[in-house]
Design brief:
With 158 residues, this protein is of the alpha/beta class. It contains 4 helices and 5 strands, in the order αβαβαβαββ. A 5-stranded mixed beta sheet has the order 2-1-3-4-5, with helices on both faces. The longest helix is centred in the C-terminal third of the chain and has 22 residues.
Length: 158
């Protein structure tokens, strides 16, 4: 708990001068940088139940996978947590949504079942981390399939 207090103290110092703005948004949406997601992403956002101005978007290699980075890459975890904290401070987000996708280069797993199992496991770890770090913010997650074919489908883990 002390660690979280120190972390939020650091975030508060880094956000000094950032006051909530007039416009608010409902969610912080995290997705992978993979350009194959671009063509159908607006439809995915609609399936989640968001409108274009309902969310702040964070695009990272492997999406939320960086939240589970080993200690020598901890800076990537801190960067993402800081982005979420800024989104909360500025726009008063109510939920964090993490989207992973199949055929993800950051996972580097060629077996479809193994990748699916690994991603579901990682989403559970991300849920634990984000719920402990931001207990008042709701967490949702999902996996986008059809990346290689371009026929994107969304499977949400509610």
């Amino acid at each position: 708990m002390r660690f979280l207090l120190v972390m939020f103290g650091f975030f508060d110092l880094a956000c000094k001068g950032l006051e909530p703005v007039d416009h608010k948004c409902r969610a912080y949406l995290m997705r992978c940088i993979d350009n194959r997601l671009n063509s159908g992403f607006a439809e995915i956002v609609k399936l989640i139940g968001l409108k274009p101005k309902d969310y702040d978007l964070g695009s990272f290699t492997g999406s939320g996978k960086c939240l589970l980075a080993p200690w020598w890459l901890a800076w990537s975890r801190w960067f993402v947590l800081f982005e979420i904290w800024q989104s909360y401070k500025l726009h008063r987000i109510k939920e964090i949504i993490v989207l992973l996708h199949d055929d993800c280069g950051a996972y580097g797993i060629t077996d479809v079942d193994e990748e699916n199992h690994s991603q579901h496991y990682d989403l559970q770890l991300m849920r634990c981390l984000l719920k402990k770090t931001f207990p008042i913010i709701k967490f949702r997650s999902g996996i986008i399939t059809g990346t290689a074919s371009g026929e994107l489908k969304l499977f949400m883990n509610e």
